[in-house]
Design brief:
391 residues, alpha/beta, Archaeosine Trna-guanine Transglycosylase, Chain: A, domain 4, Transcription Regulator spoIIAA, Rossmann fold, 3 domains, 7-stranded mixed sheet, 10 helices
């Protein structure tokens, strides 16, 4: 059984969200704590009548407990293996894993009942990233659960949490692997460097949106802004785009893009990279590309930055609407969790009005099946996008 160090009692009437399976217990909902838990400890949560509600990780802060179990029964050591197996089965059932795709997200935090833990799989290598002390403390248990579930397909497990937790150090929990490492996504090849790359090494959440972009790219000119490793660029070229330009302010990202273009065997004359700021690149350009992708980093990582972020999204989209040709397409995204779908949509509408062009919405885009959103935790929906047709 899991060993707990304290019991958290909620104020009267504050148990409703937990009973609706929301995994967060906020500090303002707590009446008292029996015991002296330290960050990362397992604790039990009870209502004001001392009825058990569940178990989770304690961490002092606004979100004080993140629940992994919604039961009065103490969870046992199998909890991680059971949740990871369920997550893997969902990926297999929804055909995320296939002969053409060997990289996917195995665990998506709250969406898979493991708040504070991300696990991405890259062709035999699992990369774990903890966002809470509790998950950090349990990293060896989780690694064992990964091996138990994917025993014949995983040869290395890399723990990469130095950037998300001050107390963590990056390390291999199983085996070793040479980086960069080649993966396949819908038949497209990419180098992955989980040791030095951003996040776990690649942005898997855009996989299906990259595929859709490819379906619209044959014979047209494409501009991929904030390109990072060139994911959208590779899909466009593989689909037969006549010309692709990739833009990123990071020279390191541009180097990664060039390597991925070469990996897929394309003529350099079909593709050109620009290590410049996207806003500077788009300035004064008009009617130049058939398709433009806007996939910026999170402009707002917290609520206080939301106002400035919306001004940034508006300006970015307005610039792209001027740069795209008539009868052109814009893929525009926001990965800011604090920016909801309606606010993002309204901001893009504002940009459209500013551009003075006739614009239609062709599609609403979101994160894929291996980044599931629990219906009881809508905060897990962070990626939103629109496909726009510009007359």
């Amino acid at each position: 059984m899991i060993k707990t160090t304290a019991t958290v009692f909620l104020k009267q009437g504050r148990e409703a969200s937990v009973k609706r399976f929301h995994p967060w217990v906020f500090s303002g909902a707590i009446e008292r704590i029996d015991g002296t838990p330290t960050d990362g400890d397992w604790v039990e949560v009870k209502d004001s009548r001392k009825q058990g509600l569940g178990y989770g990780h304690y961490q002092k802060g606004t979100i004080t407990v993140r629940l992994l179990s919604f039961s009065a029964i103490v969870p046992d050591e199998k909890i991680y293996a059971e949740k990871i197996k369920a997550a893997y089965n969902q990926r297999a059932f929804t055909k995320v894993i296939s002969e053409h795709t060997n990289c996917f997200r195995l665990v998506h935090g709250e969406g898979d009942g493991l708040p504070g833990m991300i696990i991405d799989v890259y062709n035999g290598v699992a990369v774990m990233q903890a966002h809470t002390v509790g998950m950090h403390n349990d990293r060896h248990r989780i690694a064992e659960a990964i091996k138990e579930t994917l025993f014949d397909t995983i040869h290395s497990i890399y723990y990469k949490s130095q950037g998300t937790l001050q107390s963590a150090e990056n390390e291999y929990l199983l085996g070793m692997s040479t980086v960069p490492h080649v993966v396949t996504e819908h038949g497209n090849k990419f180098y992955i460097d989980w040791e030095e790359g951003q996040k776990t090494g690649f942005f898997l959440d855009q996989r299906e949106n990259r595929k859709l972009l490819g379906e619209m790219s044959k014979g047209v000119s494409v501009l991929n802004t904030f390109c990072y490793t060139g994911g959208f660029s590779v899909y466009a070229l593989n689909a037969g785009a006549s010309l692709v330009h990739s833009v990123d302010a990071s020279a390191k990202a541009i180097d990664l893009t060039r390597r991925n273009i070469e990996l897929n065997g394309f003529d350099p004359l079909q593709h050109e990279c620009f290590a410049v700021d996207t806003f500077d690149f788009l300035k004064d350009k008009k009617d130049q590309y058939d398709v433009i992708i806007l996939d910026p980093p999170a402009f707002a990582k917290h609520k206080d930055a939301k106002h400035q972020a919306m001004k940034g999204y508006q300006r970015l989209n307005a610039e792209a609407m001027r740069a795209v040709k008539s009868n052109g397409i814009i893929f525009t995204f926001s990965c800011s969790q604090v920016v909801d779908k309606q606010l993002f949509y309204d901001t893009v509408v504002s940009a459209a009005l500013q551009s003075g062009r006739e614009i239609k919405v062709l599609d609403h885009l979101c994160q894929p099946a291996d980044h599931p959103v629990s219906m009881y935790h809508p905060e897990g929906e962070y990626l939103k996008g629109l496909v726009l047709y510009v007359s």
